[in-house]
Amino acid sequence: MPIQRGHGRLRNLAAAAAVAVALACSAGPAAALPAQRTPAQAATGSLQRHLGALVSDGATAALGQVRERGVAVWRGSAGTSDLARRPPVRPDGSFRIGSVTKSFVAAVVLQLAGEGRLRLDDPIGRHLPGVVRDADAVSVRQILNHTSGIYDYTEDPRVLEDPADPAALERWLSTGRWRTWTPAALVALADDPAHAAYFPPGTGWRYSNTDYLLAGLLIEKVTGHTYAQEVTRRILRPLHLTHTRVPGTSVRLPEPHAHAYLLRPGHKPVDITEQNMSAAGPAGEMISTADDLTRFTAALLGGRLLGPAQQRELTTAVDLGPDGGYGLGLERARLSCTTVWGHGGGMYGSTALSFGTPDGRRQLAVSFNPSGIFPTAPQTTTSHTLLETAFCGEPRSPAATKTAISAVPGGGHRHRQ
């Protein structure tokens, strides 16, 4: 299960909403819309057009949803879910959410802090003695906001092959994507003496997927249950997110879904939909839908999952300036009209993002299949235009889109030291 190489290959690509010429689109029930038209309602045609632009730029499929005050005010899709049969993409399809998983994991850790079962400033060594070097110097807070300095295991070629190397890519296609990993084994790789820490704990910022493997192990240690069981019990069931799941070693996506493909000149398309996501684990293995993600984001930012103290901690961010930041499992992006919080996610053949306003009133979720290992530069730009359009309306100038791109991690702020 490859993830993005360079600054953390399982990195959150909040660069994400790709799709093809509009082959399918459905809108939310007009009778339930607020009386005053929101930017998303006013820009419905633009949102669909941007999905189509993603596909025109090479994505095979894309879908998205905007929710406003509990109502889906826009749903769209473009492209085809299967290159052989060419059916249109369904807006209610399942997709891999990648690092958006981190927001679920962070919410559980914050709930445990609210229950007094751990403290954010506890050293992780208090709960997981000897789990990594300097475990007694790294705090729970630092693994949640990526200031731990711990080496990112996805940079180790024993875990993820370099997709730029044709031979390595073939190895992943034939065997790598089926391999099963455990979080403990991946943490051990990250802690290999050959991998130096990026910086002393708390003195810098660098996105590291190892941080969230440790968060998953922390949840298991404190509760006696796997992180998957706790996410299900504490978040999925109470919010009735019936289409969100933790796949474990299962390689399949629930139906309906769009297929992910690797398209290369001179080669037949390779369907890479099926992947063993255990190499991502709590850092990025989950599956969801646009409807479930917008409802989760509304609940998380709207204060329905955390107490007031933990809610404040959630959005206390490391400044990644000029316009970006990282809280506890959430990215901050300042757009032309507002600030939004959420996360992006990407792995081979799939990209997703889920963002919302701080008051929990409006949310956007998008998924697309870039038809290559990772999104192209035009797809990244268009996905940020979707973000700007959903919350602020159609950008009036290229400068607004540039602001969105620089604001969202994935648009240039991967390391901070």
Describe the structure.
By secondary structure, the chain is an alpha+beta fold. The protein has one domain (24-416): DD-peptidase/beta-lactamase superfamily (Beta-lactamase). The chain is built from 13 helices and 15 strands. The protein has helices at 39-42, 44-56, 101-114, 124-127, 140-144, 166-174, 183-190, 210-223, 227-236, 290-301, 308-314, 377-392, 398-407; strands at residues 24-26, 61-68, 71-79, 94-96, 205-206, 261-262, 270-271, 287-289, 318-319, 324-326, 331-334, 339-347, 350-356, 362-369, 415-416. The strands form 4 sheets. It has a 9-stranded antiparallel β-sheet, sandwiched between helices. It has a two-stranded antiparallel ribbon with strand order 4-8. A two-stranded antiparallel ribbon has the order 5-15. Strand 10 (324-326) and strand 11 form a beta hairpin. The longest helix has 16 residues, at 377-392. It is globular.
Q: Compute the number of strand runs.
A: 15
Give the low-confidence spans.
Answer: 1-35, 401-417
- Second rung of CATH, namely the architecture: 3-Layer(aba) Sandwich
What is the fold named in CATH at topology level?
Answer: Beta-lactamase
Euclidean distance between termini CA atoms: 28 Å
Count of alpha/pi helices: 13
Calculate Rg over CA atoms: 20 Å
Q: What is the total domain count?
A: 1
The main pleated sheet reads as: 9 strands, antiparallel
Beta-strand content bin: 15-25%
Helix and strand content put the structural class at alpha+beta
In percent, how helical is the residue content? 25-40%
